[in-house]
Design goal:
The protein is an alpha/beta fold. Helices cover 50% and strands 7% of the residues. The chain folds into two domains: 177 residues, Rossmann fold; 123 residues, Zinc Finger, Delta Prime, domain 3. The chain is built from 16 helices and five strands. Helix 6 links the parallel strand 3 and strand 4. The structure holds zinc ion.
């Protein structure tokens, strides 16, 4: 059995089904969107539905036919999934809350892409074409991405290649231009909240609160709802607030953070600054009516916002956006993180 398609992806699936029934399916799709929207599941469902021998009326795979069975156990001869070798391992460790080493083996290398492409040229076993999914496609190193170009340009007949990424800009333009772009949007709030409310992992946590912390991304919200995550957020916000009160040591704080967590920490920095900006723009509005994301810190944030310099606050927000783009650059990210925290402290002082 396969788990149900995330409710906010039904519209996306319907788009795909319409293209297929109209015979307008492209050879290559680039499925992108913010992390935590289930793009990977969508790609797998498109793949399974393409290969299914008895698709349902809405185009979804039946889950039971002679094609769905091998697909669901990862043994379909006409399907290949290309992912970094360590991916499964990493996911397991992440779910257990262990620290994951920041190694370069998360790359998809040229040999793996060559094998993947060679597989697509073999004749199909079930007469429903061949499908290949690459996830995350931005894990391909430049040589690997180059070796995919030829196949993207002239794919074998009846082939569908689906690239999945949350960072399309990291893919070479030559790759992007050969795929039909498919952006998964942030779902409607009511859809996301209804789904979250039924997740046992939420364990009493308010769905609206974690959805706001995840900026509307349901799967990211579920991850954030883990007690350890929420505790980590509280500790980090306390540290930032300490800096804003001109206390603490920004360099020591930067050095003490796990580098693999930096994107998450920057996300929380940004939400904090956005709340401070909101508060500054509405001095006489009661905080309860302000839709703050960090509602649990509202009492501390309101008086703090009143004494910060608005121009410097906006300046720091802009710097943070820039930093979020550069954070994967290994050469200077330590310096960038230190600079950010120093500026946090200066803002308060
Ligand atoms: Zn089927």
């Amino acid at each position: 059995m396969h788990s149900p398609l995330y409710p906010w992806l039904h519209g996306e699936f319907a788009r795909f089904h319409a293209l297929r029934t109209q015979g307008r399916m492209p050879h290559a799709l680039l499925v992108s969107g913010e992390p935590g929207l289930g793009q990977g599941q969508l790609a797998m469902r498109l793949a399974q539905a393409t290969l299914c021998q008895r698709p349902l009326a809405d185009g979804q795979a039946c889950g039971q036919c002679g094609s769905c069975h091998p697909f669901l156990v990862g043994a379909h001869p006409d399907f290949s999934l290309l992912a970094p070798k360590e991916k499964d391992n990493k996911d397991d460790e992440a779910s257990q809350g262990k620290k994951v080493k920041d190694t370069k083996d998360k790359d998809i290398k040229i040999d793996a892409v060559r094998d993947f492409c060679a597989g697509l040229y073999l004749s199909s076993s079930f007469q429903h074409g061949k499908v290949g999914v690459i996830e995350p496609a931005d894990a391909m190193n430049p040589a690997a991405a180059n070796s995919l170009l030829k196949t993207l340009e002239e794919p074998p007949a009846g082939t569908l290649i689906i690239l999945v990424t949350s960072h399309p800009a990291r893919l070479p333009i030559t790759i992007r231009s050969r795929c039909q772009r498919w952006l998964v949007p942030i779902p409607e709030r009511t859809t996301a909240l209804a789904w979250l409310a039924h997740q046992p992992q939420l364990a009493g946590e308010d769905p609206a609160r974690v959805l706001d912390l995840a900026e509307g991304r349901p799967l990211a919200a579920l991850e954030l709802a883990e007690p350890e995550r929420l505790a980590q957020r509280s500790r980090w916000l306390e540290s930032l607030l300490h800096l804003l009160r001109a206390g603490g040591n920004p360099l020591a704080l930067a050095a003490s953070q796990d580098k693999t967590e930096w994107p998450q920490l920057l996300h929380w920095c940004r939400l904090l600054l956005a709340d401070l900006i909101r508060l500054q723009g509405a001095e006489h509005t009661p905080t309860a009516a302000m839709n703050l994301v960090n509602r649990d810190f509202a009492d501390v944030l309101a008086p703090l916002a009143a004494r910060l310099n608005a121009r410097e606050l906006f300046g720091l927000y802009d710097y943070l956006l820039e930093l979020s783009r550069l954070i994967n650059h290994p050469l200077n990210r330590e310096l960038l993180m230190e600079e950010l925290l120093i500026r946090f402290q200066r803002l308060g002082g």
